[in-house]
Amino acid sequence: PNGLATTAPADVNVDSMVDFVYAGDLFGNLWRFDLSSTSPASWAVSNGGQPLFVARSSGASPQPQPITVRPVVGRHPTVANSYMVYFGTGKYFEQGDNAVTGQVTQSFYGIWDRNLSGAGASTVLRSNLLQQQISSEVASGGGRARITTANTIDWATHRGWYMDLVNQQTGANGGERQNTEAILRDGTVIFSTLLPNPEICGVGGGSWMMVLKSADGARLDNSALDINGDGVINDSDRVVPGSSTSGTTTTSCTTNTSTSTSGGGRRGGGRGGRTRTTTTTTTTLCTTTNTSTGATVGTSTTTNTCTTTTTNGVTSTPSCTTTSSTTGTSSGSGSGSGSGTGTATVASGSYENSQMSAGQMLNNCNGATCIANNQTDGDPETNLMNLPAGPQGRITWQKLQ
After folding, report:
1. What's the angle, vertex CA 149, arms to CA 145 and CA 154, rounded to 5?
2. How far apart are CA 236 and CA 214, in angstroms?
3. Cβ atoms within 10 A of the Cβ of 236, count?
4. Has residue 376 got a pLDDT over 60?
5. 21, 34, 36, 299 from 11: Cα distances, Å
6. Is the pTM for the entire model greater than 0.70?
7. Are strands 395-400 and 369-374 parallel, antiparallel or unpaired?
8. Who wins on pLDDT, 40 or 369?
9. Residue partners of 115: CB distance under 8 A and separation at least 6
10. How far apart, in whole angstroms, are the C-alpha atoms of residue 147 and residue 242?
11. Of 60, 2, 57, whose CA–CA distance to 27 is shortest?
12. Sequence-ordered list of residues with C-beta below 8 angstroms from that of 77, at least 6 positions apart, any chain
């Protein structure tokens, strides 16, 4: 038998009245119901009475992918008056749903609702979607992390995107499914998956936290979660495609020092003194390499410049400035597995931490201009120093390039 999952009402014109309702069913159909008319008699299934999308597995014999979660709806990133609908597939309430072998591969989808009617309306096909993949899983920060792809979407040909919940390294899905509601935040879609425990008397199971770019399902560009558990979110939390960051990296550094001098000629007439300016620049370049693969995980450069002046043999206190930069390839959008809390390596350039003070967040900005939004009181802060001292509750802040 079929059945409709939890519905997602959407008020698209912000008049406090529901315009559309989205919902999926056990056969993998994603429906949109049009309630925009003031007359209930005109309310109907959108898209000419056909599903907006039908979720099917890939392969020669596609199988239905049941939708048991409430979809999440957001606006399209570039096309006005159209919407993106996000949801995962898989069920976990019938006998046999806890098997880890012989299961249909489930997926997570971002479907473009073009908001068309009449001849322009059509059901989105899987072949219309951009594919993102889980390319590998690596050790990271004492747990596991996923590396995902960052393929580019073309809205002239694509009607959305999808990611199959299967590690391409092994080809096994482990019975993984997505049966909890996703979250849209700061250009990302966040969701957790379920890896069932096949034991009759077993409890729990495993899971992955996934954070992807909502526009195209690509991995994110920066680290946003504290992978290594040092209390700070920075470049050391990155995971690099093709490498492991769990005890298999080495860092080597080289330091170069140069000195330049100006002035210091013969003293002229009058009481003028002889002044000499000396500038010493020390540059340290550190390269972190994966010892297993030989791949470069990242590089950091620190430049320390000190200037002194000497007048009539008296040397001033050095005036020094230090600059630093870090480069490296950020990870895909997975997180640690297991029945516990797990870890994740993905971000969108905005970071969140429930225990960070304003000062700690400033340190994480690495000297860039930052803004913050205190989710406790809802008031935006244009200067992090305006925030009160101590932990800020839940705060989202963003580095401005």
Report:
1. 150
2. 24
3. 19
4. no
5. 9, 11, 9, 47
6. no
7. antiparallel
8. 40
9. 81, 82, 83
10. 8
11. 2
12. 84, 214, 215
Looking at residues 373-397, what average pLDDT do you find? 41
Continuous segment of H or E residues that includes residue 358: helix 358-364
pLDDT single digits (tens) 220-247: 888 767 777 788 888 777 776 654 444 4
| Position 13 pLDDT exceeds 60 | yes
- pLDDT, tens only, 206-224: 899 999 999 999 998 887 6
Q: Which residues contact 259 (CB under 8 A, 6 or more apart)?
A: 278, 279, 280, 281
- % residues pLDDT > 90 (the chain): 42
* 354, 396 Cβ separation under 8 angstroms: no
Residue 127 corresponds to which tokens in the numbers above? 């072949």
Q: What does the alpha-carbon distance between residue 26 and residue 279 come to, in Å, rounded to a whole number?
A: 72
Side-chain-side CA neighbours of residue 339 (13 Å): 6
Strands (E), 312-360: 314-315, 319-328, 350-353
Yes or no: say if 221 and 228 are a contact pair by the CB < 8 Å rule: no
The confidence score (pLDDT) of residue 231 equals 86
What gap in Å lies between CA 146 and CA 331, rounded to an integer?
8
- Alpha-carbon span 365 to 225, nearest angstrom: 14
Task: For residues 42 and 93, give the distance between their C-alpha atoms in angstroms, rounded to a whole number.
Answer: 36
11 pLDDT exceeds 90?
Answer: yes
Q: CA nearest 186: which of 19, 74, 311?
A: 74
CA 68 – CA 28 distance, rounded (Å):
9
What would the pLDDT profile of 340-363 be if each residue is shown by its tens digit? 333 222 222 333 333 344 444 444
Place of tokens 């909502």: 214
Which residue would you say has higher pLDDT here, 56 or 172? 56
Q: What is the pLDDT of residue 364?
A: 47
**How is residue 85 written in tokens?**
């609908």
CA–CA separation, 217 and 189 (whole Å): 8
DSSP string across 196-222: E---TT---EE--EEEEETTT-PPPSS
d(CA 42, CA 50): 16
Listed residue (3, 42, 6, 37) closest to 22, CA to CA: 6
